[in-house]
Amino acid sequence: MTKVLTIIILSLFSLTTYGQTKMRSIDELVNSTDSGWSLVKEWIDSAKNKVEILPVDTSKAKDALYKTQVNTRSPMGAVVYMTGGLLVDNGWIRILGSGSDKLRRSLPEWNKGKGFKDFGQPAPYLLIADDAMGGFFILNGGGLGSDLGKVYYLAPDNLEYEPLDLTYTDFLNFCFNNNLDEFYKDYRWTNWKRDLAKLNSDQVFNFFPYLWTEQGKDINKASKKEVPIEEHYRLTLEFRKKLGFDMQK
Fold first, then answer.
1. Contact 200, 113 (CB under 8 A)
2. Could you give the 3-state DSSP secondary structure of residue 140?
């Protein structure tokens, strides 16, 4: 596990620095003899929560891995290269890979214009996953705090970047094995499974009153509608700005 953590941190560090160096080729990034996928696949096979591996398109996977610049020895590189993404708990959590019909966003394309302006530039953070209620899981590349390589949760109920003290590897195990009903205990409304089944994985539920307001604390009393996740992300940042939060950008 220490070896994997070291690989993750070094890979993430490369994301914050490769803007000053030549981007590595796909051949340099694909490690066929020591891939992290075998480990990730073991975790999925033994997971307590339902995990759906979305089919991968080889050309899209190569493109996504090249743009992400993470070696496949790392779990992140393996997920990007070997999957179109992962859907956890029937799609409640969506972990980004190289994109597929069910989850069209690839990790690098989703982060372009957010964590960085263009491929090959420094990435102070990476959006690695999100959930159906509009929360975002973000890997810190140095832009969110001193805990490089740790995951934060941009929570829709308070608009805060909450440190989870998890590496990317820890985050995968959290998704696969943690009691998600407990983690989301105040935000799984009556009939949420029925509603989730109708939701596109590139959409989220937008609630009104907003969950971060006093009136929105009871999610069962809030109205909701499906909105594109891009729209929700931009709206979240706008509310943070209007409410005086320090922008981590």
1. no
2. strand
For residue 15, give the H/E element and its range.
helix 2-17
CB neighbours of residue 220 within 10 Å: 9
C-alpha–C-alpha distance, residues 42 and 103, integer Å: 22
Q: Are 81 and 30 in contact (CB under 8 A)?
A: yes
Q: Distance (Å, rounded) from C-alpha 193 to C-alpha 184?
A: 13
Give this prediction's pTM: 0.90
Instruction: Report CA torsion sign: 187, 191, 193, 198.
Output: negative
Residue located via tokens 């372009």: 112
Give tens-digit pLDDT for 164-215: 999 999 999 999 999 999 999 999 999 999 999 999 999 999 999 999 999 9
Which string of DSSP letters, residue by residue, matches 201-215?
Answer: TTEEEEEES-TTSGG
Calpha distance 83→98 (Å, rounded): 6
Angstrom CA distances, 5 to 2, 41, 168, stand at 5, 17, 8
Task: Specify the 3-state DSSP secondary structure of 128.
Answer: strand
62: Cβ contacts below 8 Å, ≥ 6 apart: 26, 81
Distance CA 112, CA 15 (A): 13
Q: Which two tokens stand for residue 203?
A: 């959409």
Contacts of 167 (CB under 8 A, 6+ apart): 5, 8, 9, 149, 150, 151
Tokens encoding 175 = 């998704």
Joined together, the tokens standing for residue 179 give: 């009691």
Please give the average per-residue pLDDT across 149-176, as a whole number. Answer: 97
